[in-house]
């Protein structure tokens, strides 16, 4: 199973990088989201995969024992998901404003800091 | 001593706030700072003369061995007295010289900053703090040289000076680190005990290279001498203080200080003698070609610095004492000559020596000071200059090899310096007063008393050399000598070779003065040789460097995101690829594939299709929708693999993201195929190879055993310590609560950013 | 998007979603859930309401601008962090608990209030973003 997930992670990285290298701003943002998902999956897979054993202590027990999924990558990814929501929102709005002001979404036309060009 | 060093810094800080009070008549009061320091250091004279050394240590960064440790011995005391003494006179002089200048307070701020840094430099016993003070002197001198910052010349000279001395400072750092490594301490006083270890170390030559580079750049030795004449663009008090009396001697001080530690090998002596010798004769010859008073003084200063380096290179006790005495002599007469030049410039408006004459009729006290200064500079008895010159000849005559050659070099340099002193100190005052200078009048005593004081000191010390001997020469000899021999400074040695040499110097110098007249034609002749001067070469080098860096930057800083990313990713691929393939042993565990369920497979296929469709679709809406599919697949994936919290969060966020996109999408531009297919293929290959590498990396990591220490801690203690059973949540709100707090703050910032971008409208007039 | 079906469904769905979000928040310490998810669910509830009944109406339900929930939440989280310093003389962010557990919620402790702060911030941030965008779209 891990093999398949590793391949999926590679696909996510590749497509994320590819999309970021496009000239269109919309694609840039889609690329960032894909790459972010790829990173989440990378962390998740490196924490090893466990099926059906969430890291929750049984109501009768006091200590987590036996086989259980690693809670640390989960905690990391959980905040990453929420933060990436904030990042995506900001990026989308930034793009929207840029488009409104400059009337272009071609990244190649944004490579100068001069206001008049 | 720490207080003494800090006083100057505090005063300059104080001037930032209270500067306006020191711009007018009160300006002269600021000289109380160096004066009080001078008195403070004078109280140590008798103690130091008895051979005592005072240590003081304040911890700063003890773990690195960097501490504010100060030593007051003969050498440090000489420099401290010179810095504060000349400082006092320069401070007084400035109050009249720059009277009513708009930025007088600023000038005082820089001056006292410099003074404090210089004091710190000579008192430091720790090489690291010495380096810091060293750089501070470079920086404050940058401001002082460029004080007339509305002139391009000044700014350029300041930059050159900063560049040259700044590089020297870095060299000092390099030398300090190496020395600290070899000796095991940064304290100079402790390095003395590992003298042999340093000389035997394989880094010895490198250490010498670093220390020499630092000293030669700071003390304007050939071929780094060119920044000093340029630095004469600064107001005269700066030239007096920094570029003749104190800062340029920092390099000499460094050599002096390190000499007992480093002079174990022959190379130390050879390099110093050669560099010092070349510098002293090279710049002494330059004097002949100059007509600007300050130019003459600048070159004679370089020459004098050359003599000092030369003497330290000879390194016998006699030579070191000669150097110590010559430092005093030079400070006294050169500072006076600079101040006198300043007065002439201030009152007549010119420094061209061919035009100046007869000024004694209008500037009598200045003329007296100039005359005495010329006598000291020429080494005419009974001034201190004579004592100094005798000592120089004594040390060259008794050097073990090439004594004759060295003596001849010293003799010719001295003759030229004699000439320089008389051109600067005597020539402007004698002869017939030109008409245009008849209205010149004597400036405020604040300006002409300081040079008079210094020249008189030179006379007094010459008549009673015992004063210098007990207070300075002997304590310095004790800091240097391994075995100390007693000696006496005298005016009269009896009839011997040295006296003959001194007499020859006087006669030749006088002849030269009468034969050779400064002429503009001579100056123009030498200007033709500027093409091969070290200065031109260096400036060309720096220009070439600028061209190269522009070229280099243009390659890498294109302003196109895809170029940056391309370079970064290619580099990562190379690095990762090398790491993975250099040790390629992939253990793939296929056993887990056996119990794949149909659900898992369908989720993975959905995920894969979603990703690929997002990349290849031509419709924006389809891309967003398939991105939603990717998110949902993720949340199912998390659900399958024991991460219910993640599944819930991913699901909610995915919903919100799609809503977000849909809200904005109508306002967005249509998808355009902007790149051509060649570029797409290139990027495709790069991305795919990166993806493959990431996959390989994961597989490689999965082959290793996992460290579960932290995980086990959380599993063990989640309920015991935090009374929670959902460990993910316990980590978030309890174990790593502060992280979470910062994360929600980031979320707030993002939300505020969105709010600001959309709600804040620029007013029309702000837009333009 | 103001369809009748959505409108009538949402009038039942929204209270349920809100109660659900609080439920998720409270059980977070023992079972899957917590402040992040709870906040997102609550935000979705309000967004749903805005879609079916119009943004203005949702705003009147909320009474205050959702942006104010962000500093409020941060304050709650911070106060829960310093409460051990005030009450028990323990370092910042040490968990403290009340003596007796309450039914359904379980033991009340500073961690719960911290989660409440996270909950409020997430609602505030998500709603600020979505509302701002839909207002200007």
Automatic annotation (TrEMBL), chain A:
What membrane topology is annotated for this entry? Multi-pass membrane protein
Q: Which residues cross the membrane?
A: 6-21, 28-49, 72-94
Mind telling me which Pfam families this protein's record contains? Oxidored_q2 (PF00420)
- What cellular component GO annotations does this protein have? plasma membrane
Q: What keywords tag this UniProt record?
A: Cell membrane, Membrane, Transmembrane, Transmembrane helix
State the compartments where it is located.
Cell membrane
Q: Which residues form a coiled coil?
A: none
| Chief place of localization | membrane
Q: Cross-referenced InterPro entries, in alphabetical order? A: CPA3_antiporter_subunitC, NUOK/Mnh_C1-like
Instruction: Family membership, please give it.
Output: Belongs to the CPA3 antiporters (TC 2.A.63) subunit C family.
Q: What is this protein called?
A: Monovalent cation/H+ antiporter subunit C
Organism in which the protein naturally occurs: Psychroflexus gondwanensis ACAM 44
From TrEMBL, chain B:
Q: Where in the cell is it found?
A: Cell membrane; Membrane
Question: What keywords does the record list, in alphabetical order?
Answer: Antiport, Cell membrane, Ion transport, Membrane, Transmembrane, Transmembrane helix, Transport
Chief subcellular site? membrane
Occurrences of domain NADH-Ubiquinone oxidoreductase (complex I) chain 5 N-terminal (ranges): 61-108
Which GO CC terms are listed, alphabetically?
plasma membrane
- A Pfam family this protein belongs to? MbhE
Residue ranges annotated for the NADH:quinone oxidoreductase/Mrp antiporter transmembrane domain, each copy included: 124-407
* Protein's GO biological process: monoatomic ion transport
Which membrane topology describes this protein?
Answer: Multi-pass membrane protein
Q: Does the keyword Cell inner membrane apply?
A: no
Q: Which GO terms describe its molecular function?
A: antiporter activity
Which residue numbers delimit the MrpA C-terminal/MbhE domain? Answer: 680-759
Q: Which residues does the UniProt record annotate as the domain MrpA C-terminal/MbhD?
A: 605-670
- Its transmembrane ranges are 28-49, 70-95, 107-124, 159-183, 204-228, 267-289, 296-314, 320-341, 362-384, 404-426, 446-468, 494-516, 564-581, 596-616, 621-641, 647-665, 685-703, 740-758
PANTHER family assigned: NA(+)/H(+) ANTIPORTER SUBUNIT, NA(+)_H(+) ANTIPORTER SUBUNIT A
Name of protein? Na(+)/H(+) antiporter subunit A MhnA
Q: Per the UniProt entry, what species is this protein from, by scientific name?
A: Psychroflexus gondwanensis ACAM 44
From TrEMBL, chain C:
Q: What is its main location?
A: membrane
Keywords, sorted A to Z = Cell membrane, Membrane, Transmembrane, Transmembrane helix
**Localization per record:** Cell membrane
Q: Which GO terms describe its cellular component?
A: plasma membrane
Q: Which residues cross the membrane?
A: 12-30, 36-55, 67-87, 107-133
Please tell me whether the keyword Membrane is annotated for this protein.
yes
The family assignment reads: Belongs to the CPA3 antiporters (TC 2.A.63) subunit B family.
> In its UniProt entry, what is this protein called?
Na(+)/H(+) antiporter subunit B MhnB
Q: Which organism is it from?
A: Psychroflexus gondwanensis ACAM 44
Q: What is the lineage of its organism?
A: Bacteria, Pseudomonadati, Bacteroidota, Flavobacteriia, Flavobacteriales
């Amino acid at each position: 199973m891990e093999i398949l997930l590793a391949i999926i992670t590679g696909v996510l990285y590749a497509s994320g990088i590819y999309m970021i290298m496009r000239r269109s701003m919309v694609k840039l943002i889609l690329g960032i989201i894909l790459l972010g998902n790829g990173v989440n999956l990378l962390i998740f897979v490196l924490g090893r995969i466990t099926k059906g054993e969430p890291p929750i202590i049984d109501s009768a027990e006091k200590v987590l024992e036996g086989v259980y999924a690693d809670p640390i990558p989960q905690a990391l990814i959980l905040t990453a998901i929420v933060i990436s929501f904030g990042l995506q929102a900001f990026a989308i709005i930034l793009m929207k404003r840029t488009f409104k002001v400059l009337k272009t979404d071609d990244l190649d036309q944004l490579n100068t800091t001069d206001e008049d060009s | 001593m720490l207080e003494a060093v800090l006083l100057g810094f505090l005063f300059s800080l104080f001037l930032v706030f209270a500067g306006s009070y020191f711009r007018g008549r009160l300006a002269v009061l600021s000289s109380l700072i160096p004066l009080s320091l001078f008195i403070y250091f004078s109280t140590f004279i008798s103690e130091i003369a008895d051979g005592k050394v005072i240590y003081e240590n304040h911890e700063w960064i003890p773990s690195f061995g960097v501490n504010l440790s100060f030593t007051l011995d003969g050498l440090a005391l000489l420099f401290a007295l010179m810095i504060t003494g000349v400082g006092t006179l320069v401070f007084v002089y400035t109050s009249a010289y720059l009277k009513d200048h708009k930025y007088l307070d600023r000038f005082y701020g820089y001056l006292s900053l410099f003074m404090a840094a210089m004091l710190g430099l000579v008192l430091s016993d720790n090489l690291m703090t010495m380096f810091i003070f060293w750089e501070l002197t470079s920086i404050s001198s940058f401001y002082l040289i460029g004080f007339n910052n509305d002139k391009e010349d000044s700014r350029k000279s300041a930059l050159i000076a900063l560049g040259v001395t700044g590089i020297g400072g870095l060299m000092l750092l390099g030398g300090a680190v190496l020395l600290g490594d070899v000796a095991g301490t940064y304290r100079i006083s402790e390095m003395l005990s590992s003298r042999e270890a340093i000389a035997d170390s394989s880094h010895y030559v490198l250490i010498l290279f670093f220390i020499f580079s630092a000293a030669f750049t700071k003390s304007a030795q050939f071929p780094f001498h060119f920044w000093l004449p340029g630095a004469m663009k600064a107001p005269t008090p700066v030239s007096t203080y920094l570029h003749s009396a104190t800062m340029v001697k920092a390099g000499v001080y460094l050599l002096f200080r390190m000499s007992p530690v480093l002079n174990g090998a022959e190379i130390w002596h050879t390099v110093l003698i050669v560099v010092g010798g070349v510098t002293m004769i090279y710049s002494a010859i330059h004097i002949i070609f100059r007509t600007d008073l300050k130019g003459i003084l600048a070159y004679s200063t370089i020459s004098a610095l050359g003599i000092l380096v030369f003497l330290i290179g000879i390194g016998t006790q006699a030579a070191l004492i000669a150097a110590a005495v010559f430092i005093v002599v030079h400070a006294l007469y050169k500072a006076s000559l600079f101040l006198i030049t300043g007065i002439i410039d201030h009152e007549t408006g010119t420094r061209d020596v061919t035009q100046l004459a007869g000024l004694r009729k209008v500037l009598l006290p200045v003329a007296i000071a100039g005359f005495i200064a010329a006598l000291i500079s020429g080494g005419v008895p009974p001034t201190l200059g004579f004592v100094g010159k005798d000592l120089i000849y004594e040390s060259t005559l008794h050097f073990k090899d090439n004594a004759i050659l060295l003596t001849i070099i010293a003799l010719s340099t001295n003759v030229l310096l004699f000439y320089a002193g008389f051109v600067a100190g005597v020539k402007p005052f004698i002869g017939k007063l030109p008409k245009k200078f008849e209205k010149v009048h004597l400036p405020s005593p604040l300006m002409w008393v300081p040079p008079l004081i210094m020249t008189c000191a030179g006379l007094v010390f010459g008549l009673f050399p015992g004063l210098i001997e007990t207070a300075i020469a002997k304590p310095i000899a004790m800091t240097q000598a391994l075995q100390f021999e007693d000696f006496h400074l005298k005016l009269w040695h009896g009839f011997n070779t040295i006296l003959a040499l001194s007499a020859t110097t006087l006669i030749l110098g006088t002849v030269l003065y009468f034969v050779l007249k400064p002429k503009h034609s001579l100056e123009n002749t030498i200007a033709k040789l500027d093409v091969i001067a070290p200065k031109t070469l260096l400036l060309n080098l720096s220009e070439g460097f600028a061209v190269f860096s522009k070229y280099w930057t243009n390659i890498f800083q294109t302003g196109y995101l895809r170029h940056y990313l391309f370079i970064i990713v290619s580099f990562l691929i190379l690095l990762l690829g090398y790491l993975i393939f250099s040790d390629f042993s992939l253990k793939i565990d296929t056993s887990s594939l056996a119990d794949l369920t149909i659900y898992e497979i369908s989720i993975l296929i959905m995920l894969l299709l979603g990703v690929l469709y997002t990349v290849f679709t031509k419709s924006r809406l389809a891309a967003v929708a398939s991105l939603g599919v990717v998110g949902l697949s993720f949340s199912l994936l998390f659900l399958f693999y024991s991460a219910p919290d993640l599944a819930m969060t991913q699901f909610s966020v995915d919903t919100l993201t799609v809503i977000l996109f849909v809200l904005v999408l109508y306002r967005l531009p249509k998808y355009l195929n902007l790149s051509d297919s060649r570029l797409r293929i290139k990027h495709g290959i790069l991305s795919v190879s990166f993806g493959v590498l990431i996959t390989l990396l994961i597989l490689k990591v999965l082959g290793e055993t996992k460290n579960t220490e932290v995980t086990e801690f959380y599993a063990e203690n989640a309920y015991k310590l935090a009374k929670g059973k959902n460990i993910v949540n316990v980590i978030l709100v309890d174990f790593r609560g502060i992280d979470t707090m910062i994360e929600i703050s980031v979320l707030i910032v993002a939300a505020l950013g969105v709010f600001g971008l959309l709600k804040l409208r620029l007013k029309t007039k702000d837009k333009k | 998007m103001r369809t009748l079906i959505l409108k009538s469904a949402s009038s039942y769905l929204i209270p349920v979603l809100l109660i659900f979000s609080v439920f998720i928040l409270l059980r977070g310490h023992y079972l899957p859930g917590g402040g992040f998810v709870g906040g997102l669910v609550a935000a979705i509830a309000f967004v749903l309401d805005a879609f079916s009944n119009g943004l203005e109406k949702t705003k009147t339900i909320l009474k205050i601008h959702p942006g104010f929930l962000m500093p409020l939440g941060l304050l709650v989280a911070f106060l829960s962090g310093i409460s051990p310093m005030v009450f028990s003389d323990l370092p910042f962010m040490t968990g403290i608990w009340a003596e007796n557990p309450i039914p359904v919620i379980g033991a009340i402790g500073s961690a719960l209030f911290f989660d409440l702060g996270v909950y409020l911030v997430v609602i505030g941030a998500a709603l600020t973003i979505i509302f701002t965008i839909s207002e200007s779209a």
